[in-house]
Amino acid sequence: MTAAPSMSPADSHRPNGHLIQRMPAVRGRLTADAPLAPVTWFRVGGPAEVMFRPADADDLADFLAALPAEVPVTVIGVASNLLVRDGGVPGVTIRLGRGFTDITADGMTVTAGAAALDLNVAMVARDAGIAGLEFLSGIPGTVGGALRMNGGAYGRELADVLVSAIAVARDGRRLEFSHAGMGFTYRHSAAPDDCIFTGAVLRGEPGNPLEIARRMAEISDKRADSQPVRSRTGGSTFKNPEGHKAWELIDKAGCRGLSIGDAQVSEKHCNFLINNGTATAAQLEALGEEVRRRVFETSGVTLDWEIKRIGIPAEGSTAQ
């Protein structure tokens, strides 16, 4: 299904028309100039030049195999740890949907699609009496995002429970990764940047559903107590440097509550940036860079972004 693009003045300067006119036939949905701000947790950012919602893994593989190699491809999930720049995202943005959300339990393993919410995976494991996956309930994202960045929370990470993962390469080939093949390190996997994860198999251990539920409730309470979960935020902004906690370095640098426009360092947890209403992506990114500058100035430690930033700045954009 393809949504016909509305012509804009910018289209008249494109010698080949809108990019959507060059897209292969699909069974899913293609949309031109799809707004991204409404789907991001920050609620900022420009549109996707083309958005593709594949029907299933076959649709995704066929599309990528036929897509011209020069067209850039970006993958997003529920955009909980994502900052989309104000100029939008050129090329094709792929967002996996219903065809990638199935979760099944078998023995002590859980098989989940890449678009399955981490919380839902934890809940299925709980109901099946599979312990060890409770930490996923503290990660506000999807299985695909957790695979890409070795997502973790409350003392555990995906590397502790992954058996295998499947993906589609940029050229449409099907890929399978063993645990060792993922090359997990802290908040990182060594899988090729251009592959798109479609699912994973996770392993837990026998547990009592009531005890598992109790641990999940504790995680939920801790998140609510320590993080600005009701704000427009993007989750943890910076990775913890070796031997340090990012929030402590930020606090010691005097950045708690620091703001640029409506972009602010959270008073509740200063490794979170929040949009207090009308912040732009440029303001949020500039605020993050100012935090990095001040932390380095006061501690000599360079903070690395954990939030993924995609797209291009708007023309003439400013952080003022």
Characteristic key phrases:
globular; 3 domains; five-stranded antiparallel beta sheet; 6 helices; 320 residues; alpha+beta; Uridine Diphospho-n-acetylenolpyruvylglucosamine Reductase, domain 3; Uridine Diphospho-n-acetylenolpyruvylglucosamine Reductase, domain 2; four-stranded mixed beta sheet; Uridine Diphospho-n-acetylenolpyruvylglucosamine Reductase, domain 1
Q: Which value, in Å, is the CA radius of gyration?
A: 20 Å
- SS-based class: alpha+beta
Order of strands across the widest beta sheet? 6-7-13-11-12
Which H/E pattern describes the elements?
Answer: EEHEEEEEHEHEEEEEEHEHEEEHE
| Overall tally of structural domains | 3
The first-level CATH class of the largest domain is given as Alpha Beta
Mean pLDDT equals 93
Tally of contiguous helical segments: 6
Distance between the termini: 41 Å
Largest sheet: 5 strands, antiparallel
- The oligomerization state is single chain
Helical fraction equals 10-25%
Give the DSSP E fraction (strand runs of 2 or more residues): 25-35%
Number of strands: 19
- Assign the CATH topology of the largest domain: Uridine Diphospho-n-acetylenolpyruvylglucosamine Reductase, domain 3
Gross morphology is globular
